[in-house]
Amino acid sequence: MRSKTIFAALLAGFLAGIALAKQPGPVIQNLGPVSPTPMPSPRHEEHIRLISSFTLNNKPTGETIVSFEATDFGVSGKGEDTRYRTIATEQYSLVDTKKPELRELRDQITKQVRDLESELLKFVDVAGPPRAREPMSPAGG
Predict the structure, then answer these.
(1) Do residues 87 and 58 both lie within one domain?
(2) Which domain, by its residues, includes 48?
(3) Residues 72 and 51 in one domain
């Protein structure tokens, strides 16, 4: 009988410990769906586009490859606080003119490039001709 009483006391103590250990959770109030914080309004920017690089590859055989890069910028601020943010950049080539409406424009640009080349050669004449390359010496000699 005594063993039954001890067992009953242990069981009662164990159950009381579990009851004390499992305290009720906090009271939670449902407030509905979340309304996200609105994004800050963007600063005022002016958008500009410029030709950011230009490459001309001429070969004496007459083959010419003209390629260039156009870049769009967002410009904000004034004076010394002016900031430029790159929006988009794209590479173009006058060789790949699959659209018929680009062919006439390509021919016009090529004529203008040839005029520019003539002016650049005049500049070279005044500034001085290119220097001849030094002959290559054999390695280790």
Answers:
(1) yes
(2) 44-94
(3) yes
pTM to 2 decimal places:
0.60
Indicate the helix (H) or strand (E) that contains 21. Answer: helix 2-21
Q: Report the relative pairing of strands 64-76 and 46-58 from DSSP bridges.
A: antiparallel
Check whether residue 88 and residue 108 sit in a common domain.
no
Averaged pLDDT of the chain: 84
φ and ψ at residue 122, rounded to 5 degrees: -65, -40
Per the structure, how many domains does the chain have? 2
Q: Which residues contact 35 (CB under 8 A, 6 or more apart)?
A: none
Q: Bridge-partner residues for 85, per DSSP?
A: 74
Q: Where are the beta strands (DSSP E) in 10-126?
A: 46-58, 64-76, 83-93
Does 124 score more than 70 pLDDT? yes
